[in-house]
Specification:
The protein is an alpha+beta fold and 202 residues long. It has a single domain, classed as tt1808, chain A (Alpha-Beta Complex). It has five helices and eleven strands, in the order βαββαβββββαβββαα. It is globular and about 50 Å long. The chain starts with 19 loop residues before the first strand and ends with a helix.
Amino acid sequence: MTQPAAQLPPHRDDRPTEDRIVVLRGATWADWQRLLEVRSDASMPRLSFVDGALGLMSPSRDHERIASILRRLVEEWGEHLGLEVASLGSWTLEHAPRAGVEPDECFQLFGEERTPRDDRPDLAIEVIWTSGRLSKLEAYRVLDVPEVWIWRNDTLRVFVLGDHGYDEVDASAVLPGIDLQRLTSSLGERSVTAAVRRFWDA
């Protein structure tokens, strides 16, 4: 006699909570270009290449939730400062033959005294939800990205590019005055709307 299919509890969520990550060593710039070609217009996996290491990453739901909240709060603070914020998502950035990255989020900021370069963002954001990812700071240095934010384990670290690489700092240079502690505390909310409300009400 055929048994009825088991029914999952209505509250159960079987979607993966970990990023799916593969890092290939000994890769070439041609491998990076070929993967971009094969992936074509698809948004996943997100790719990175740093000095012969090729990373492929499919982000989890929680990874994307945090990235989307960060994007909105950057936009909110940029507007508060009177800047025009261009949100450029996972813009594919390249500097052949050493580095190629696709940030979780990146931005260009326009204002009376600010005109960004056409070939790179002013700010890139990386969310590290699952260990094992390729470290991208060297790639961003090669690409000359002025500021990088890295979120990991409920901590947001800010790196500003100097003469000898990135220096970790306590305040953003491209978004002056933003309260990073308040911003970080808002990332625990389950929706962008709730996070924005908490950020401004804190």
